[in-house]
Amino acid sequence: MKIILTVAICVVSLFGVNAMASEQALLEQISRNNKDIIHAQMNTEGEMLSARSENNLPDPELELEYMANPANSLEMVVSETVEWPGIYVSRRKELSYRMTAMEYLYEAKKVEVLRDARLAYVDLVNVNRQIRRSTQILELVKSILDKVEQDTVVTDYTVLDVMKLKVEAFDLASTVSELVIKKQALISNLELMNGGLPLENVDFDAGKYNARLQSLSYYEEAFGNSPEAKAEYQQTLADRHAVKTSKQGWLPSLTLGYKFAREDGMKVHGFVFGISLPIFSNRNKARAAKAFQTASYFGWEKRQFEAAGEVRVLYGELLSLEQSLEKYRDVIADSEEAMTYLDTALNEKSITIIDYLSEYKYLLEAKSRLEDMEYDYNLKYVELSKYDLFQ
Asked: Which residue ranges traverse the bilayer (predicted)?
């Protein structure tokens, strides 16, 4: 049994070496092929083009008037109405900030998808551990049953003991089958995130997830400069220029054009100039823009406070889990030696096969609790490090 455990530890170490490269390959492929990311990209491009069109000049107008009288008069006017020129400059700056915010929102969607992929990979690693642990116990039970059939068991046993072992083997085999199905579902989910394409250079049998905690200031900076925070800040700048645009909306619109007329055999032509005073159309727009500016600024400040609080909470939980993991590893540090004692006790007939199996399972369950704590740690780590892509 000691040889089996040593091999298992070596395999886990090898998984640890390859886990980071495997996850990197996973994220690179999903980043390229994920349908939600592609949809968000196309949608962002469409919204940006739509935003640019908001600052277009209005279409020119052509008016043609023909009067059927004895003189047959004709009148034609071609004109263009534009807002005050400074409004276009101010609105262009406003739209520039809005489009930058759209780009950051696209990046935020990308962060969300890649975080979900990392969480799914953490789930896969955890299922692999459960499969390995259940398989290890199942192989032990089978080996004891084989010895019973071959009559090579050194300790005493009863028919009831054998029946308990067979029931245990059946339950363990069912558990392993369920875990294998769950593993395949997780792999299918990851491939679905990859646009339905198979994933290459990804270790689906990984038994360890590499979580490397950085300093608190590192994550505070990452959350403070997250795509969501940048998008909201750009929106505050856009709203600030929207206020300027609204204030300039009180300036008159200008109409310029050309007029041609023919009446009583005479032809005349000349320029057309007009002014439209926004006495009613711009009412309350400046105050509304100011209110939106204030709201967006407080929204950005609120996100900054919430992000700082979220970082501190997650970081504190991870530090606490690290301490618990370190202490628990010390507690179960002698588990391998304890397994050796169990083997010796079984060979010396000082323990029954059922008690042997029960104690052996207890030691493995102690390791299972450690793995569950590591699983919880990895989930929180992924949430804390979701912005590492932008660091």
From this structure: none
The 61-67 sheet, strands edge to edge: 61-67, 73-82, 253-263, 266-276
CA atoms of 337 and 316, how far apart (whole Å): 34
Give, to the nearest 10 degrees, the angle between helix 2-33 and helix 335-347.
140
- Which residues touch 355 (CB under 8 Å, ≥6 apart)? none
Q: Which domains does the chain have, with CATH numbers?
A: 2-31+109-252+285-390 (1.20.1600.10)
Q: Which residues of 26-65 are buried (b: 16+ CB within 10 A; e: fewer)?
A: bbebbeebbeebeebeeebeeebeebeeebeeeeeeeeee
Distance CA 323, CA 317 (A): 10
Rg, C-alpha atoms of the chain: 36
| Type of residue numbered 378 | N
Cα separation, 249 vs 62, in Å, equals 26
The neighbouring-strand residues paired with 271 are 258
Report yes or no: 351 and 345 within 8 Å, Cβ to Cβ.
yes
Q: How far apart are the first and last CA of the chain?
A: 46
Check if the beta carbon of residue 293 is closer than 8 Å to that of residue 239. Answer: yes
Dist. CA 389–CA 111, nearest whole Å: 8
Element (H, E) at 358: helix 353-384
The pair of three-digit structure tokens given for residue 382, joined into one six-digit string: 């992924």
Q: For residues 359 and 340, what is the distance between their CA atoms, to the nearest angstrom?
A: 12
Distance CA 215, CA 162 (A): 54
Rounded CA separation 134/31 (Å): 34
**pLDDT per residue rounded down to tens, the chain (391 residues):** 333 333 333 444 444 446 678 899 999 999 999 999 999 999 999 999 999 888 888 888 888 887 776 667 888 889 888 888 888 888 899 999 999 999 999 999 999 999 999 999 999 999 999 999 999 888 888 887 877 776 655 556 667 777 888 888 898 899 999 999 999 999 999 999 999 999 999 999 998 898 889 999 999 999 988 999 999 999 999 988 888 888 887 888 888 889 888 877 788 888 888 888 887 777 777 778 888 888 888 888 888 888 899 999 999 999 999 999 999 988 887 777 777 777 777 777 777 777 878 888 888 888 889 999 999 999 999 999 999 865 5
